[in-house]
Amino acid sequence: MKRYGSVIGVRExxxxxxxxxxxxxxxxxxxxxxECNIRNYTIFLKEPENLMFSYFEYHGTDYAADMEKxxxxxxxxxxxxxxxPCQLPFETRKPGEWWAEMADxxxxx
Length: 109
Known about the structure:
The protein is α+β, with helices and mostly antiparallel strands. The protein is 35% helix and 28% strand. It is globular.
């Protein structure tokens, strides 16, 4: 299992919509997340800064293939199309990132 953390902003004018969407995530999107070996997935929101932190655990053996599978899913693509306008990515993110990945510097069970 590998832990992943990432951050992104949420647009002030879209924050209520983002919360509404995530209060009732589409069942097909949730099923695809599970099929792609992601567990313990959480998104936190820090207000008033409008900073979102995502955490999940990957339990598969081929992360790249599972992420390609998720990205190819039509329902997930539709979900991203409604969520993406709400998000404000960091200018400092790496090429190819939307949510900026974070380094794991400490963990305790």
